[in-house]
# Entry
Amino acid sequence: MWWLMLLVLAAPAAAQRPFCDFGQAVGGLRGAEQRLGAPGAGLLAGRAAAGEAAAALANAEAGFSRCQCPHLAELASEAARWAEIAAAHALAAEVSASIAQARFRAGLARQALERDGCR
# Structure
């Protein structure tokens, strides 16, 4: 049993990093893309959808970062910033335009995920 303790103490640093839930990050990205793709029924609904998508994209970014996928984390971060901007706009047209940008960037992240995986 003493060898087990030795093994735990001598484990590589990669095994000791925070938990990486790649599936949750991918699910957050897909969920955000769905929220951004749903047609908004006005200013308040658009802002609410953008806020929910921003939170999901921020979680996806954190998950991709923990999984050491910097390219995916960067793309998710860009989409999250646009979703946050959309949630803060006061005019429906501005919300719609920013949601379109966030949706485009989330789509780029999904395409990169499908094409390259985690890199």
In short: The helical segments are 2-9, 13-16, 22-37, 43-66, 70-88, 92-116.
